[in-house]
Amino acid sequence: MNSDFHIKSEIRILGIDDSALLNKNVMIVGTVFRGGSWIDGVLRSEITKDGLDATDIISNMIKKSKHYGQIRVVMLDGITYGGFNVVDIEKLHRETGIPVIVVMRSYPDFEKIKSALEYFSDGKERWTIITRAGKIEKIAGGKGRNPIYIQKAGIGLESLKKIIQLTSIRSNIPEPLRVAHLIATGIILGESRGKA
Amino acid sequence: MNSDFHIKSEIRILGIDDSALLNKNVMIVGTVFRGGSWIDGVLRSEITKDGLDATDIISNMIKKSKHYGQIRVVMLDGITYGGFNVVDIEKLHRETGIPVIVVMRSYPDFEKIKSALEYFSDGKERWTIITRAGKIEKIAGGKGRNPIYIQKAGIGLESLKKIIQLTSIRSNIPEPLRVAHLIATGIILGESRGKA
């Protein structure tokens, strides 16, 4: 399942970030990158704030893209999008056939998440999806920068580390996620801000 | 006025493209690039389809950006945005203090434009702005690819050519415009398509 594979320098990667929670519909942006070098495409879709549709919507956005046949890895910025819309990374991997890498700047505060989920009638289901995302590991960020935390589905740790090093050319966050963040914040707020 | 200047490899460039004409408000997207290498920021604003507000809105978008002090060149994809919303490049240069480069894949069909402008009550004013944009010159595209056509305000031809060569690393269109186009079409249509 979590197999390692050969990483080409121009491996196609889809990085997905969400935008600010201004409405019930939250825009998500995907950037199709070749390695860490340049953008081949931009995808956009909407998920529901605090809904449970993120997994299906991301999966469909990928499958209907003209880049679907080329994308070798999907990168997520954490597993909760649009508030507490939790992405089931095993299901996303299974439905698209593409390995999934979750990148986080810091270790998630699970106590805080668990408390927040108590306000959801389906909080238990969301918590199950969160725990199903597997072990969180701390690895080196790109080019000796700050470490990052990762989860994964359908990819081995060695391949994952190579992809992180290949694509983190500007910060400790891989380019597909850094640029998806710039686009998502720039489009919704008028000018990009903050970090992925 | 059209002076040449030293071009650093990481010169900050703002490339601006518009999106599909689906509504009265047409989204414009700006990408702040360092040379042809990577994106530092994304800007977004709206102009009126077939209006005459593009010059002022682009000028204001630039002046209120946190990148304003760093941007050394503005690149436009032709001078008509959102239908026939004509950009006055001399005014844009004067108001922002930043040189402007207009990039076109092909020589504009001025007869067609002139005919279309007959349907506008202020068609003469728009035509004056178009002629004021100055001589259209054919120059080499990046890396020996197809030639492009350019106009300019506040920059010499030698500096302009260096900037085109520096930034056209993926096609004969400079990266700031290529990526602005991918973002504008991707966000509005759900997936990027076509060429800047």
Structure notes:
The structure is a homodimer of 196-residue chains. The first copy, chain A, is of the alpha+beta class. Chain A has one domain (12-188): archaeoglobus fulgidus dsm 4304 fold (2-Layer Sandwich). In chain A, 32% of the residues lie in helices and 27% in strands. Chain A has helices at residues 54-63, 89-96, 110-117, 123-132, 157-167, 175-189, and strands spanning 12-18, 25-34, 38-48, 71-77, 80-81, 85-86, 100-104, 137-139, 148-153. In chain A, the strands form two sheets. Chain A has a seven-stranded mixed sheet, with helices on both faces. A two-stranded antiparallel ribbon of chain A has the order 5-6. In chain A, a hairpin with an 8-residue loop joins β8 (137-139) and β9 (148-153). In chain A, 49% of the residues are buried. The model of chain A has no long low-confidence stretch (mean pLDDT 94). Chains A, B: InterPro entries: Endo_dU. Chains A, B: This is UPF0215 protein RG963_06440.
What would you say about this model in short?
Chains A, B: It comes from Methanosarcina baikalica. The structure is a homodimer of 196-residue chains. Chain A is of the alpha+beta class.
Mean pLDDT, all residues of chain A: 94
| Proportion of residues in β-strands of chain A | 25-35%
Low-confidence stretches of chain A: none
End-to-end separation of chain A: 28 Å
How would you describe the shape of chain A?
Answer: globular
Overall CATH architecture of chain A: 2-Layer Sandwich
* Domain count of chain A: 1
The share of residues in helices of chain A is 25-40%
Computed Rg of chain A: 15 Å
The computed structural class of chain A is: alpha+beta
Oligomer: homodimer
CATH superfamily heading of chain A: archaeoglobus fulgidus dsm 4304 superfamily
Which pair of protein chains has the largest interface, and what are the residue counts?
Answer: A-B, 26 and 26 residues
CATH uppermost class of chain A: Alpha Beta
Number of strands of chain A: 9
- What is the ordering of alpha helices and beta strands of chain A? EEEHEEEHEHHEEHH
CATH topology of chain A: archaeoglobus fulgidus dsm 4304 fold
Strands side by side in the biggest sheet of chain A: 3-2-1-4-7-9-8
